[in-house]
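Hello again, I could really use a second opinion on something today. I've been staring at a protein lately and its backbone has me curious. Can you walk me through what the tokens say about the fold? Take your time with it, there's no hurry, and the full record follows here:
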Amino acid sequence: MGYEILSLLFFLVVIIAASEIFTNAIEALGAKLKFSEGVTGSIFAAVGTALPETMVPLVAIFGGNTAAATEEVGVGAILGAPFMLSTLAMFLIGWAMWQFKGLRKKDTLEPERTGFRRDIEFFLFAFTLSFLVAFTPYEYRLVRMFVASVLVLTYFYYVMETIKASAALVKDGHATENSNSLYLGLIFKEHMGIVVLQLLIALGLIIVGAKGFVHGVEALADILKMPVIALSLLIIPIATELPEKVNSILWIRKGKDTMAIGNITGAMVFQGSLLPAIGIFLTPWTINLTVMTSGIITILAGVWLYIISLRVKKITAPLMIVNGILYLTFVSIVIYMSLSA
């Protein structure tokens, strides 16, 4: 067990270092393209750091040893990612606000509101639709294919709306700015090619770190005799969501709230629309009691975030405790069901 723990710590360090390199490159990319912080956080950063966890369900679906393993790990990882982002990741945002309040010199979270609200609206629509379609009979294949197509179109419409809003946001002072010089710019002359190179290096390190972390977690879970569905819903999403969490915490520390929140909510839209569409296309897309519970809690967390985006003028750290409570509620339910089995 000692080796597994050391392995986890090593790959965790790789992920954290890669995330710092990634945030530095993504800020430079957004600044050079003159995009708003919303586009940089919700699309570029969100999709880029979603790559590691995107690979997990795809590998499970295409390379699973058994149909049962493919179904449990694939569907569990697809629905587990939005659950983790809407609960634990948002709780960590609140923790980071409190932890770095001295550096931030403000007690409230101040993301660009229209983008925050738009992300949550698209997420709730897409995720709820993908969740509900799992209750339709498998014989209704045409209905399921239609829903999957709607989910794909929803994400591309979301991207268009986010980019369309960018120009006005830049004029209002929400342009992406570099906090630090590009790291590779200290060695090479800084231009777009070097920015892209650093971005690709960071993404490569993130994927390597996330895959190594997942393998270490799987080995540890095997030692601890954890069930597959608990692994796919709890441990794998925690491991593969680390890049988003670390990136957002780094941006919270710098006071870049729009990019910090957009990094998470943009990933929620991506993983609540495109990944479920893949799952609906390629698997029977049925859910058991555990997955159903995670889906309901995810929707509740999304509704809470939507209320915050609409009604709360001053977003403070304690508001994110609700998301943490929802996460702990699910963990308690999974542990209880595992012990009762």
